[in-house]
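Issue 218. Parser rejects a valid record. Input:
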Amino acid sequence: MTSGAKTNKPATEVVVRRAQAADLSAIVALDATTTGHSKPDFWRDKLARFSDPGSPERAFLVAAASGRVVGFITGEIRAFEFGAEPRGWIFAVAVDPQIRVTNVGTRLFDEICKIFQDAGVEKVSTLIERDSELVLAFFRSQGMIFGRYIQMEKEIG
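Output the parser choked on:
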């Protein structure tokens, strides 16, 4: 590799752990980088509700390298969608674009699935936009396939 070439490997070991209040600004910044929208109030609420390590039904995890948040995933166990059995639902996942393709997303996904499985569920689901090719490719690479439910919507505004 020539000097100055970009590498997709993180500089140090990546640690996956429960998110903490101190991670909020990094989560907001990472989400804004990956989605193009800054949503500090949304993430403040999610962090407050989902980061409790004593809650087996909810999880908010971060991946950190050298003390810096480089990824996150969040979700919960739900069973209220038209008679669906309890399952883990992933609401969001993001990885710093500078270190994608280093299995950080996979490690986050595997860890949240373990939390869901330890709580007794056997399936994990998520919703994504049809044109979110990067997110779709990620979840398909994790072995997810299209499920039996069809999401429907109507504009009301």
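Fixed in the parser; the record now loads. Strands lie at 14-18, 58-65, 68-78, 87-95, 124-126.
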